[in-house]
Structures are given as structure tokens and as C-alpha cells.
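A quick word before the example. In earlier lectures we treated sequence and structure as two separate objects. From today on, think of them as two lines of the same record. Here is Response regulator transcription factor written that way.
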Amino acid sequence: MHSHHQIAAAARIGMLAHGPDTPAACAEVLRELARALPLDAATLLSIDPVTGDHVQLAGVGYTTELSQNLAAEFVRTPWYQNVMRQELPPSISEDADDTGTRFRHGWFYAERVRPAGFRDGVTGALRHRSRLVGLVHLSTERADAYDTDARRLLACVMPALAALADPVPYITDLENGLTHGSAVSLVTDGAVIDVPGHERAGIVRDEVFHELLGAFTGTGGRRLRLLWPVDGDWRRVTLQRYLPGSHRLTGAVLVVETPTELPYGLSPRELEVLTRAATGQTNQAIAQALYLAPRTVHTHMEHLLRKTGTASRAEATALAVRDGLLRPAPDQVARFVER
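And the structure line, produced from the sequence above:
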């Protein structure tokens, strides 16, 4: 039976999981575990969504380098598969792998764990929203320290640990303007990360879009709204700098894409003319950039004024910027970024 201080520690761990995902919160989780369970060393690891490597978020008695190196070796052992399958986190002293060999009779224990002075340990696989997101491992110098009750207590708090370890955000409709049919991706360092519960944004397949995305990142801006063709259909697209409470995925951009028709019945060419007008270009400059006659540009402006119900060029361009009626080129992005 669990004591009142163990239950209190588990409750505090649960509250930490709902707060900001910071290094301090992760470290505090391990301190709470030390109040509830025997441990002389512990590590909380997250799986990097880009590289697949295990990254230590917090450690007691484990340096970051040691913890990550041990995890890289551990995942190649039969014992790791045992951890993945078991409902209760298995212990060094009680459990065996598929061959019937106990962990402390294997090479990893003999060469990595026992020389460090540890006699027992327990490892749990952290899953969040049905995805494997990390590991938690506790070690102690005492033999036979992790009985069934101890392992059940660890299992109870592992969902909270998984929420802290998951670097991929929970994207809410309210915060990010998602509607039915929106597709969402996180893009960082050229890698595209899928967001649970949402389809991948089709625009991330477009090489020209990645040039625009790089320009957006370079501005240091907060948000950019635009219109973009994807597979022959138009999308409303929002680029939003991802500002997590986490120290991870800093610099990532949240890409939200929603199917749409071109607003106000604008043609693709009229949208391009409107975008250039919004940068302050004259009809003559637009004509030169698009290889059109100045009279043709003038006609496009007349059409888009009529379609948008605006009375002047200035009013039309203000509408375009306000509502994201833009199809900017990378060199135009800085003019439209919200800061």
C-alpha cells in the first residue's frame, strides 16, 4: 500500500506536467520521485522528433553525456524490447527478457550498471497521445528495491512524465485558428514534424515555400498569413513562430493550412498584383516585374477594387494586409510579417 507522502508526491508530479515544460519542472519531477521511491540516480529522457536520439531532460547522478550514451546502447539490447512491451516498468532484479535471462545476468548490467555501484533499477517507456516519446530510469545501490508496489507507483506517474517529455506540442484550435479540415506541421531546421491529431500540411512539399519559410524565419517575426496554391487548389496558410514553454524545438515554425477559394473571386494574377501593390510598388513597377503592359496592370487594379468593394488602392492594400490576401515572394515577406 502506498503511503500518504508517496500519493502526495504523485499528485505534485501530475501538477508539474500541466505547467510550463521547462528544465526546472523536469528536475523537480525527479526530486518528487526521490521522495516517493528509492533512488540514488535517475534520468528523464525525451526522444528528439528529428533525429530519434534520446535527449536527457533532467538527471540525478547521471551527466547528460553519460545518460544519452547509455540510452543509445540500451535501445539495442533485448531488454529494451522488454521495456516496450510490459505494462509495469520492469526491474533489474525481478524481470527477464525473451530468452529467460535476467537483466543483471546480461552484459549491459555487468559492463555498464554494476560498475557504477547500482544493484537494482527500473525503466519505463513514456507514451503520450499513443506515441513513444521517451524513457524514465531509476537506479539504486540497494538490491531488490523495486517491488511490485514501487513499480505500480512509477507506472501511475508515467503519463505525467510523458507529457513533460513530449517535445511535440498539443495544438489547440482556439490558440492557432484551426478549423475543420486544417492540416498542421512543425518545421525546424529543414525537418518536418507531424503534429498528433492533424494531417501533414501539403505546402511543406513545395520547395519555393521553403524559401519563403526561410525568409520568414530570418525576419524574427511572429506570424505571417498568406494564400498559396497546393496541388492545384488554394489554401489559407498561417506561419506562426512556435514559442513553447519547452527549451526544445526553439525556432520551429507552426504551419497551418486550410482549404479555401480565392476570396472575393480574385484571379491568381489579381492576387499577385494586389500583393505587389501592398508592398508599395507602382503600376509601372508591377508591370515590369510581371512582364505586363502598364495598361493591363491598371485593368487588374480596377477589377480587384470592384471585387473587394474598396474605393481606393490604399484601401484595397490595407484589406489585403489585414486579411492575409497575399501571395508574397520570399523577398517580400518582411513587409507583411506581424511582429
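Notice the following. DSSP finds twelve helices and nine strands in the chain. We will return to this example when we discuss secondary structure assignment.
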